[in-house]
């Protein structure tokens, strides 16, 4: 058993303290260490060079905020047992363990119908067996089966520590000051009312700022044109590779983990049966494969791979109205001509779609505000000149990407 | 030609402005983009999870400080032509372009006698040809052939912008507050005297702090036991692979770039002839290779690779006195027994050495201080109770690593 | 003449450089040094203990941003002569020189119809005479008589460096993270089009955040209940003192500067004739007077003064709807009874009013956005889901203060 | 009784939480509120304009660090009762309550033999009576009568939270980055061994940095020439006023609190009998008095006062060797001639002395380091190339101030 106390330097919060042997064991488990090699923000570093932090770092940060939030709630008299505390900490530590490399892009490309949250659950169950059932409370909290709802809401809800950390951490590493949130104030104002997580009235400005920061990060960073285009290109690379395989052409150069998923992609193979392989796969597999394929004989595959590696990201139009079909057709022809491929294949190199809430759901921002008199109101009901009723309108954008030639 | 002005968000300095077409062309060149996939701090992220910034990011940061320093000097009346300004900016942008992946560890393992500075020069010369001689002044400054010595000293000297950036950036990303330096004050106090870079007397406290920060970062971060052990393990992996190749065993699983270097490692092949391959190689190659070799039939290779990937870094002793030989022998035996290998091969899994100025030279810290009366004094001659004469003493440590079994 | 270069440490921007002899002379002039003893945020430190920075510090900060903005514009090719540059720097350095102590509260109490901006102009004219006309361009810019409108707009406009500094600095010293603005990005995006200051399209998120931060600071800090109540109390103290004087009662204990203003307050004396006395008066006069009056025989005066000094700030209701008259009357009676004064005088200790845009005008937020195609649009016309059309709605609140008894 | 939980924004630590009714009562007591109007750094703001934070703010900050440290120690199993916790928090909150305005300068000028620590104790005893003995444990801890020595050491010792806060806070507000210390790491490494406060071995680099930061702040800030000169001028102002009173000349213009102390200064009056007056006196008294005396008929008094108010601080020589007596005599003559006073009185306007450890004692830096094997070593005994043996050498400087004419 590892020693029971570890302090980790974190540029965002200063220090993160791990003070339970089980937490230390989980953190040093290969399944968790894999997250070290998965970028939290995928290709965002192509635009924001500092955005190279890992999912491991984010989940440690979210864990730290969970510790702070639990302490705050306990200080206000909320009843939380030691087992629940450990469970909530484990749940947040493991909430992203099911993320694969570039998961927003690849979630449905490498294996069908495998959402990262359900993979997280599978891995938690696997670990629960390995650790003799010690993760059961964590799993109950993660899946909202635990009677104290607020614990689940801290892991996944409108004010959960997951998004508090990612907004803050992503702002920090990108250098986009607009995304910084007053997480410490929000956490200090958390309370539990009738078993649910609420915030005290005094936090209303911080909440308003929190919601705005999310929207700003959404448009300025997460949906940045170059980032979106790079992710789309990666999808096309995988699709092309699968098409080649389907037509019997070898795609030598994939790392063994990637290869396994590509080979099984047409079949009925489930994520359950590939879980160990999944736990072996990280960004290095994807990037090394893409690098090797730069020299692949298939023109489409090599053109796309080189464009990623040399950061010649596709042109992208991103707008509120649908993109003109003639423009799309013309670009496809041009690209096909220049690269020297069939027009039928041009849609690998020039393609469009819709970017609605592509990365993070920003609807349903219902947040309960606890007034001094003990009453609860949803934030949209609060009489405050700062609160913008339009906050929950959905936003959709149309995009069209085409090779930079 | 790309448009002539670009602003890059940087969490350390806020914004970095690129405002010359040639600078933009260099930055978007594949040789430069390669640095995006090379960690500035190699394995330091195993201890400091935030330390995942790239060499590309560092060289942009050093470029930013160069811009600031040149502006400051021009403001004080130092004569710097536009061509020299561009040259100095190009020189610092490219000063690290010859770094390979994990270069402090691998510099002499993948190819003999190829120091990263000489590779930087080779690549700069290659680019100079490609860009029709536009990099000649940059090369002259880099190699200290340019008559205005202070320009070279800004690139490489006791107070160069290279180390100002890396100390600051490494502190920032590790979260080690002790390493933060007052770079803005030092830069504001830079001056040129008789063609050489000096600092004004008022900066003396900042310089003292700068020297101390270097020492602190050196011991607390760059020579952190776990980091040193991981680098040593990587060296052993490459050595084992080369030994296997030499004995005719295939080491399938290396990416194509790594494979080329391994195959040629025993031969007389020079870096010049492999320069294009070198420019294809980054951290993804090393890490994907190590991942693939986790399944290699050679026990030593697979044991070492798994230990890296699962972060089961070797035990390491690091001390001021030589490590007891009996202890070393005993550990070798133990390890050989447990892993099940010949004792002759145990030195792959249990080995020692000296860590003297392993990463950065901290000797020769001569810094010229410009007094108000115009006289110059070396910092060690300054009558100041804060200045520690022992500052330039060499420091050596002995280490011994052995597998965690 | 003082030496021509000075560097001032500033916790907000790092260093502020003064590099012109005239600027140094102005800064060391007693009129300017007076600002050292005037709190930028008056009584805000009663709630935010860090908010004790001075108007001198703020105007140095605004000067620093002016330097940055002018450099940026010159770098983009905007024609700015050396005389204009110096003028703009002097104008911003002196823009607040007409502020008296607690000026938002006392502006119309100590001397009638004397707005701080017109006093600033008077003092600038006085200095202009003293310095042989060297401030003429500064005065022209300050009064918008200079032909290049953008210089005035940098001093006073929707995106002027004054409010950029105060929002940022006030956030910094209060510790209210919500008010931090991305001033560096906004300044980097400033441009001049047809002689007017505009911002490039890319800054739109930063502008949105800037506008929101202003609103947040407005409600969370500038109009904080306790701060408003303390300012109202100070007004009542002065009113009471003037009433006592008018009825022939001596108000021994005022410092000589305060005394002069009180004595002349009923008369036709103008600010012009009292300008030298005005330039002698700072927060120490007000606070020492209030402290001395704690022992004044007049109950109302001493009660109010003690309440300020001991931080027993009045209760205050602050709401969107008018405050119930019965409640007001009842409170007046209560207070009069407890303190033992006539009900006729109770309105010194229990009083109400409206707080509409009390401190800073937040209407008229028209900001010109420069699009890539060279066209201009007001920010409210920009098609962007983040821009909130309601941003320019006026906001009014009703308040009622009464003694804490 | 005030409500039992209050959160205060602090730019240094984010938020400070007060969660005990007695703490809130103490904080809102007039004796404590007085600290709001006493600058923590006296005249340092003449050089560092941001250095205007109050002693109230510092003591809240030190209280916050105390809370953190106690939590950390409790987390490591140190036995601390609730009463002790409250006592330690009260002790640190009140540790500086005996500071008068500009106390480093005026401590022995306004009343003889009254050291601020003994006045703090007097006020704590007064409050203890007022609060029915609830402060007894705090007093015992403050005076080191409490059996658990480490509690006193947290209030006042080599690693106490007092100096951790002031170094950090003074760095923050001055903008002198060199003074920033890694307080969070040091606090996380505190432990109790045999009843005494020690630090774990891992903190050694942070401690080294802490000691260096102290020295840097000492020379760069606390003993900055201009700051020292201004303090010396204030001493001379008081001495001159006392001399005038002694010779029967009225010094109209002093506020009532200052006046009382001046009048009694020659007598046998003790601080005990003037304690209430002492608790009425703050920076506003000193500064308003100095302002009023700018117009005093005594030339020496008015010249000195104007020099302070207009920031025409005296010239000062500050050096390691004694200042030449001839130079001193010559300057005295010059000054006397120009101002038009007797040479006998010239020593008010030109005077010298020694600045040895003027503000803070930096000797006796013995710090116990707790090694992993449980052994204790003083930091000077630690085998570490970073530790500088000269760290505890005393430092003395000679100064000579003379009027800027």
Automatic annotation (TrEMBL), chains A, B, C, D:
CDD domains: HDc. Gene3D superfamilies: Hypothetical protein af1432. InterPro entries: dGTPase-like (IPR050135), HD/PDEase_dom (IPR003607), HD_assoc_2 (IPR045509), HD_domain (IPR006674). Transmembrane segments: none annotated. It comes from the Bacteria. Pfam families: HD, HD_assoc_2. Residues 51-176 form the HD/PDEase domain. This is HD domain-containing protein.
């Amino acid at each position: 058993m590892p020693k029971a106390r570890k302090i980790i330097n974190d540029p965002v919060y200063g220090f993160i303290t791990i003070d339970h042997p089980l937490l230390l064991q989980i953190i040093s488990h290969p399944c968790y260490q894999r997250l070290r090699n998965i970028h939290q923000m995928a290709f965002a570093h192509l635009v924001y060079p500092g955005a190279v932090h890992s999912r491991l770092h984010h989940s440690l940060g979210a864990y730290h905020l969970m510790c702070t939030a639990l302490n705050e709630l306990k200080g206000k008299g909320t009843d939380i047992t030691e087992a629940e505390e450990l469970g909530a900490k484990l749940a947040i530590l493991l909430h992203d363990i099911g993320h694969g490399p570039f998961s927003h892009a690849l979630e449905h490309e490498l294996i069908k119908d495998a959402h990262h949250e359900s993979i997280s659950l599978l891995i938690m169950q696997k670990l629960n067996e390995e650790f003799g059932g010690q993760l059961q409370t964590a799993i109950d909290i993660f899946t909202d089966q635990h009677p104290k709802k607020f614990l689940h809401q801290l892991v996944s809800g409108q004010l959960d520590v997951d998004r508090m950390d990612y907004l803050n951490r992503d702002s920090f590493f990108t250098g986009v000051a607009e995304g910084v949130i007053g997480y410490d104030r929000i956490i200090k104002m958390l309370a539990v009312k009738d078993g649910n997580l609420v915030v005290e009235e005094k936090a209303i400005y911080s909440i308003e700022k929190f919601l705005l920061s999310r929207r700003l990060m959404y448009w300025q960073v997460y949906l940045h044109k170059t980032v979106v285009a790079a992710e789309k290109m990666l999808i096309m690379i995988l699709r092309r590779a699968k098409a080649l395989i389907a037509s019997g052409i070898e795609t030598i150069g994939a790392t063994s983990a990637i290869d396994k998923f590509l080979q099984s992609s047409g079949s009925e193979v489930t994520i359950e049966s590939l879980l160990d392989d999944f736990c072996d796969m990280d960004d290095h597999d994807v990037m090394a494969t893409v690098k090797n394929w730069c020299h692949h004989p298939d023109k489409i595959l090599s053109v796309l791979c080189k464009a990623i590696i040399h950061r010649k990201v596709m042109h992208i139009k991103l707008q509120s109205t649908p993109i003109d079909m003639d423009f799309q057709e013309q670009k496809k022809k041009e690209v096909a001509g220049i690269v020297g491929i069939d027009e039928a294949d041009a849609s690998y190199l020039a393609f469009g779609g819709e970017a609605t809430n592509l990365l993070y759901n920003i609807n349903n921002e219902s947040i309960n505000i606890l007034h001094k008199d003990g009453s609860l109101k949803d934030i949209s009901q609060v009489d405050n000149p700062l609160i913008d009723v339009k906050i929950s309108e959905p936003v959709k954008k149309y995009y069209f990407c085409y090779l930079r030639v």
